[in-house]
Amino acid sequence: MKPLKKRLLTPGPTMVPERVLEALSRPTLYHRSPEFKEIFLDTRERLRRLFKTEGEVLILTSSGTGAMEAAVANLFKPGDSAVVVAGGKFGQRWEELCRAFGVKPITVEVEWGKSVSVEEIGKILTTTPDVKGVLVQICETSTGTIHDVKAIGKITKELPDCLLIADGITAYGVYDIPTDDWHIDVAITGSQKALMTPPGLAVISLNEKAVNRLNDNPTAYYFNLKKELKQQPKGQTAYTTATNLVIALNEALKMIEEEGLENVAKRHEMLAKATRAGVKALGLELLSENPANGVTAVISPEGINGQDVVKIARETFGITIAGGQEHLKGKIFRLSHMGYVDIFDILTGLEVTEFALKKLGYNRFNFGDSVKAAMEVYEKETL
Asked: The CATH number of the domain where 142 resides is what?
């Protein structure tokens, strides 16, 4: 029997609300028109409120990786050094981007599933005074792990020529992050995660310290942030933007503001706790020692390939969850609780996980154990 519906419980793309889909389907506007200019400027202001920053917020037509590339290409010069936190697939991406643009990475290797040592970063910055930046994930999506970016910001704020550049692609809209108060000089996110919009837009915020560092001649053409800074405050972009996606993002940001950012963060925290309790009730272990509120990485039981759990969920129930990446492929599976998600989505994901594990021969639980544990968390957190 084929499933009638498809549901996304992946850490991006995530499910898109009906309101956002309706906005996406509106007639396409000319990107230089007064009507689109008004929407674009409103979207920038809503993003500034989401980021809690007084700095510049730029919208790029790309995935989040485009904004990561823009940060490296515009804020460093070939030969510069940068500290890179490599604690997962996306930390490695920072390292790869640095090498691609001639920046020398000072790589802090972090075991996947662990958080970086802030003390180690502080030591490097003390002993290597010419470092131009620290590149880190707020949430390392591949492992479901949080890094203490707030603590890193307390160090970099004292270094006038060292920028803190944070990939918050699966953090903004999950947490209530005060970008300026955390001294994050450059922050990045993407439309397809907790912002509940289809893939295609990236957002990058820059404070005054970062704007002053922008290269006059960056090693980029399309991702030239100085060009965007000239245009976007006027409601324009340097090149043709994805107008329908901007309109959809505008609607999603309205939904976040209507719920209230603090409430959005509380909802994600509750759903994360419920998910963790559910998988632990099945006798399973989490990969992360410091788990994130956007996605839970679960270690597959011995003898069971995590990719098979993903396959059964998708083919039998139409539920798409995520597997592991790189050396963790087959060893973990990941359940997202990010964006347009409520407790019923979590219960569905847990039930499907139970079914898949039973089918694969793991029987150390009774059907419903994970749901019961999740509902107990829900009761405690909401009643």
From this structure: 3.40.640.10
